[in-house]
Amino acid sequence: MEKSDKKRILTRVLIVIAALTLLSCCFLGSTFARYVTNADGSGTVGVAKWDITISGDGTGTTAASFSDLSPDADIGGKGATHSTGYYPIATIANKGEVNASVTFGAASDPTATLASGVTAETEGYNTYYSQTNTNSMFSIAFYSDDSGTPLSSGYTLAAGNTLNIYAKVTWTTQSDAMDTWYGENVESVTWTLSYTATQNSELPTVQP
């Protein structure tokens, strides 16, 4: 092979190598030199506050104490009624951020506590004294103030608001003889009261 042929071959090889080098640089440039932007962040959701307080003489271990109650003295006879005043028994405060449905009421039938010494042998015990008679004679009702505004269980207590609950006890005569026996032999009548506050609104009010 002549020298000129070798030179031409060498020149062509160098040209091919140069072209391949340029081509590889293009590929490397597009792979390793593209624009990249990175960032870190965080997202936080607040928890809607639930804060209900229930207090008062008719809550916890204390007992709301009404004045002594007697049957009606003016009319008498079956159906005559006489009541205590309106007594504050509970205050429910919604210090949270969502509304609450407040349910309340007597969680049991009224319990008549007999005076000391009264037993089944006491005269009239089996005639006048029974749970059925106690239920029919004594009732408790609930109000939102001391002027007799009725209050229904299931009241919606808006966030930031307070509910005062009052109660009144009524003696309804079934017979004068039964009234007399209870007046002679029963010391007191007691109800177990219950209060429950349950969430009934949500935040946000409208989901995106």
In short:
This protein has 208 residues and is α+β, with helices and mostly antiparallel strands.
Q: What would your notes on this structure say?
A:
The protein has 208 residues and is of the alpha+beta class. The protein is built from 4 helices and 10 strands, in the order αβββββααβββαββ. The protein has helices spanning 3-32, 125-128, 131-137, 176-185, and strands at residues 52-55, 81-83, 87-94, 100-106, 111-114, 138-143, 155-157, 162-172, 186-190, 193-199. The strands form 3 sheets. Strands 1, 2, 3, 6 and 8 form a 5-stranded antiparallel sheet that branches. It starts with a helix and ends in a 9-residue tail after the last strand. The mean pLDDT is 88.
